[in-house]
Design brief:
Helices cover 17% and strands 37% of the residues. The chain is of the alpha+beta class. The strands form 2 sheets. Strands 1, 2, 3, 4, 5, 6, 9 and 10 form an 8-stranded antiparallel sheet that branches. Strands 7-8 form a two-stranded antiparallel sheet.
Length: 175
């Protein structure tokens, strides 16, 4: 897909729509060595933190991608046109422990421009991120008791903040 670089101050997105309706493919690890994995994410946030554009993603420690997030200082978030929804569903419901799910789904990993984690050729928006902070969710801090229903196995997410160091996308993601 043809994407153009987007100046970060010109990035124009609907974050709730991207996470809730479109989903992202999160990739972490080292693409050049082949030591990476990806997973579909539909929870997170985008905005500004510490005077820098950031992406917030959450990964459960039980996910195979968790290990890649832990050992890598970078990650990417790729958003896709609706025609790739089934592929994203596949990547969210299968484990990379059993094989290359990006390949099985039909995604084409490509080298990112500024980080070692891969991006995907079919993506309409790519955010390249450098991890800046992490924290584990503490259930004693849930103010809404219904939040606990998302954790029947008590596998609370780790929250990662990543500074967005680069963005590229199709028309419509830039103002």
């Amino acid at each position: 897909m043809q994407r153009a670089d987007i100046r970060l101050e010109a990035l124009s997105i609907l974050p709730v729509h991207l996470f809730h309706q479109k989903w992202f493919l999160l990739a972490a690890g080292d693409f050049p060595s082949g030591d990476w994995n990806c997973m579909t994410v539909s929870w997170g946030g985008l905005g500004e933190m510490w005077n820098k554009p950031f992406a917030l993603v959450v990964v459960r420690p039980t996910r195979y991608t968790f290990g890649f997030m832990e050992k890598s200082g970078v990650f990417t978030l790729s958003a896709f046109p609706e025609i790739h929804r089934q592929k994203l569903s596949y990547c969210g419901s299968h484990s990379g422990r059993e094989g290359n799910k990006a390949e099985a789904a039909g995604f084409t990993p490509i080298a990112s421009r500024h980080v070692s984690a891969p991006s995907f050729d079919e993506a309409e928006l790519i955010l390249e991120c450098r991890k800046t902070y992490f924290s584990d969710l503490d259930p004693s801090h849930f103010l809404d008791p219904s939040t606990e229903t998302h954790y029947p196995a008590k596998d609370y997410h780790r929250v990662y903040f990543g500074e967005i160091v680069s963005a590229a996308g199709i028309a419509g993601y830039s103002r």
